[in-house]
């Protein structure tokens, strides 16, 4: 490939040749000959410098562990490239580089300069990168580039094909999660809800309770509306819902990336405690995962699906909520701007036995603060636990989620206090 410098050299050489023809001055021909010699040498050396080279690349991935079956965000990857000279002459002054999308955006290009390589010799090049973001990334082809000795011409040869690298989402190992402990813990008390076959009692009516379950005899006796409660052997599966369609934020600080991390951390805790989870979001539409084959997909398979998830896939939160069985426990991750999803949560909350909502705030919202705060406040008034999670504050939100362990999740309680930043203090 010709460079701008080479174009200038050729133009000057042609001009000197024309001047020499007109003036017949000997030193002009001499200078012109030197220029043409430089041009020819600069054309041949890069071609020979990039020829007869063999490259191999090896990615040293972290060993599979309990949390991740492969490299995850924040893990170190060692990438080794070996360059071998298959010719009888040495090489000088050439570059070897490749694009590494696994690394942070400002350090994706990995470039190495080799000053000298002996005949039949080999050079090993190593780079250590930190996995920046989950997803399927493709390492660019290893490219050998030579422009020696004067940089007038450049030859670029692709020696290695692109290579896929799957990065898993970061999983924060939770110490406890009340939604799971209450679901799988042993209890001698029968569970009560508005769904089931056998009536076991009644409780006070709350806004949102179906009116067809009103217990008229107890209503007349107590002087206030009462609704029937049923005993039901509920599915102990924990449902995790998030939205992959409406994504806010930029880079790795988006509502989708935070939702996947929270969902993966909660699912990890449930599966580690011999439970099962159903995940609703993106390419996961109610798929079940657990510790045994009979529970659906395995933990590595679930995490792989989360790794491959793209924005714009799946169902919205409202549709996912409508598909939940009555009386289940759910962890919902929702954007504080998604008023439609918040209203759906308010409508569906009476059907669920336990519900915790993680509201993602500060990811480039466009709605007014009053509108956002009023939606979350209405959700709290529906006796739903609401946690706020802001950019760069994910560990704090997960810690608040752990601290919910001391609270009662009985849907007949007067209310559940909110842990974390009060919704009224939202920006």
Could you characterize the architecture of this molecule?
The structure is a single chain. The chain has 427 residues and is an alpha+beta fold. The chain has two domains: 119 residues, Immunoglobulin-like; 206 residues, 3-Layer(aba) Sandwich (Rossmann fold), CATH 3.40.50. The protein contains ten helices and 20 strands. The chain has a six-stranded mixed beta sheet with strand order 17-16-13-18-19-20, with helices on both faces. A four-stranded antiparallel beta sheet has the order 4-3-7-8. Strands 1-2-5 form a three-stranded antiparallel beta sheet, with no helix packed on it. α1 runs antiparallel to α2 and α8 packs parallel to α9.
- The CATH topology annotation of the largest domain reads as Rossmann fold
C-alpha-based Rg, rounded: 32 Å
Biggest β-sheet description: 6 strands, mixed
Strand order of the largest sheet: 17-16-13-18-19-20
Q: What are the segments in which pLDDT stays under 50 over at least 5 consecutive residues?
A: 186-191, 406-427
The end-to-end span amounts to: 54 Å
pLDDT averaged over residues: 84
User: What is the approximate shape?
Assistant: elongated
Q: Report the β-strand fraction as a percent range.
A: 25-35%
Helicity range of the residues? 25-40%
CATH class division of the largest domain: Alpha Beta
Which secondary-structure class do the elements indicate?
A: alpha+beta
Give the domain tally: 2
Per DSSP E runs of 2 or more residues, the count of β-strands stands at 20
CATH architecture of the largest domain: 3-Layer(aba) Sandwich
- In sequence order, what are the helices and strands, one letter per element? HHEEEEEEEEEHEEHEEEEHEEHHEHEHEH
